[in-house]
Amino acid sequence: MNKRFTTVSILIVILVMLSAACSLGKKTSSLLGEEYRSDIGGFSINKITGYNFDDSIGIVNMTAPEGTNETGPGVMVMGGLMEQELTNDDLLDTMKSQASTIEVGKAKKTKVDGVNGLLADLSGNYNGVEIKGKLFVAMYTPKQEFVMLALAPEEQWKDMEPAFEELLKSVSFFEATSSAETIVETNESNESSEPIDVEPQLIRQWASSAVAESEYSPTDWSASQATGAPDVDSCGDNGYAWASSSSSGTDSIELKYDIPVSPTEISIYQSFNPSQVIEVDIVDLNGEAWIAWTGEPETVENCPDLMTITLELDEPLYIDRVVIYIDQSVLQTGYNEIDAVELVGYTMEGQASTSSNVEPNNSNVVEEPAIPVDEGLPAPTNYSGWMADSVYQGWINIILNETNVKDLDKIMTIKGTKSTDSWKPRPDHADTYIYEMGPKDMRAFISVTTDGIVYKKNLSQFTYPDDFELSTVTRATYEELDAIYQRDYVIPYSVMANILKSPGLLVEQYYRLDDEKTVSIYDWRAPNGDRINGFFIDGLLTGMAGLSFIPAE
To answer: CB of 501 within 8 A of CB of 380?
Structure first.
């Protein structure tokens, strides 16, 4: 999603933005007002008469004064485009993995507005209050998600449940727009806008759609997996790249780009058994194909491998498609998987580069990051105020897969209490210990295994010390970080912390059993409440969850 509010980072928002009416009524009820359409979210839903209503980048909240942020009663609705394809089960698993205090029950298949989804019960305990709720998730398309969540104190859920069911009936789905598309439509509809002359620009863009002669499956390894920026960061068989139906024959894939250009460069990112490409064609706006490169399969040492074709045309030829032919019968090394294909070229005169798949190209000048990046620098340790005191320093020094439960109080320098929650988020979960951290409403939750070893820790969400405010947290700094991310597809934690001149607030850290990696979530906060959020896997910000700028409410 263009605003980088991905599923993981948005989930951090939705678990605290929960206050709404307990009695919403049916779609035709007088309690429901006009229909509201969220173009970015890709859904419409009826407003609740008399209640506060807010839609922020595809996240809808309807608020009643009797609700509380932590326990409800409340309803939240979220939708929008994603960078990677997911199934309903994938989306539900993502929600489960990020719910630190809420248990997600067994899901059942449920259809809303003709779209198949999953409906599950929610339960949990927040500061002694037993909570119940429901969660509905659906992928309207493989890259467009929808989530509707309701929570209420247990004794109020009997009133909330029928309201949730009726509100769900009022939902309608349609194709979501990106924020960039919304801006373009707004500009086009502005009758007072003056025409703007746009000089040809050298731009880089990723494919927006793709079709293949064959594909291994319609989901994983499909042609659409070759669209967008690269998302496979290691050599190997990976469903996020395109693979043909056969590992030993010939095949082809055609990639479509949003903005026609006169090409100067084509870069093919091959993530498995590379260098079996035998021909690359470019297709002009009249549908005529031109051969840009031919060759023979040959063994290469690099994997993943970047194959770059440079074009020097005598006169402009504007294209919007690239066709890649592969021959896997020569080397017999197996599936030649293609992760992404980048097209570089000059736009036509008078054409603006507004696609979300497009980036300005400054390859005609020496490339330098907007700000100095020194990956050799250690992360800063300039903790100040409350974060320099013993409690938070103890929190930092709780080490996953190392710290023993018997040492928790000593390291934290305060006494914790054992949670009464019986939820087991993973098979070897034993207990969760709660610590009052000091700042208002801030609590630490530390989870341990049956062996007494810490495997997860997290702070209560959206609670910050009053003295944690950084002048470095600005939209401009975020854009500089985003430029590094777009260039390298990764930002080490030490680099990001040095750019923001602060180690940041460690909000959550947990160990994933499925891939044996450690996830760490850090927040950096501005005096006005804006936040820059980083989602790091083994110390590296990468993948769809990575970097977020979250404006103040």
So the answer is: yes
Structure tokens at 369: 């990051």
Domains in the chain, start-ordered, CATH in brackets? 7-179 (3.40.1000.10), 202-360 (2.60.120.260), 385-550 (3.10.450.730)
Contact in structure between 65 and 73 (CB atoms under 8 Å): no
Instruction: Provide the residue type at 205 as one letter.
Output: Q
The rounded distance, in Å, linking the Cα atoms of 548 and 10 is: 9
Q: Which of 206, 201, 272 is nearest to 486 (CA)?
A: 206
The span from the CA of 487 to the CA of 479, in Å, is 12
Distances from the Cα of 370 to the Cαs of 477, 496, 526, in angstroms? 10, 13, 21
Q: What is the pTM of this model?
A: 0.41
Residue 300's CB is within 10 A of a number of other CB atoms, namely: 13
**Axis-axis angle for helices 88-98, 7-14 (nearest 10):** 50
Beta bridge partners of 209: 256
Query: Helices (DSSP H) in 170-310: which residue ranges?
Result: 179-189
Instruction: Yes or no: say if 24 and 32 are a contact pair by the CB < 8 Å rule.
Output: yes
Beta strands in 311-404 (DSSP E): 319-327, 337-347, 358-360
Q: Stretch 47-60: mean pLDDT, rounded?
A: 66
pLDDT in tens, 393-447: 999 999 999 999 999 999 999 999 998 776 677 888 899 999 999 888 899 999 9
Q: What is the pLDDT of residues 458-490, one digit of tens each?
A: 998 778 888 888 999 998 898 899 888 877 778
Amino acid present at 520 = S
Token digits for 164?
């949730």
Integer Cα distance of 128 and 463 in angstroms:
18
203 in Cβ contact with 353 (< 8 Å): yes
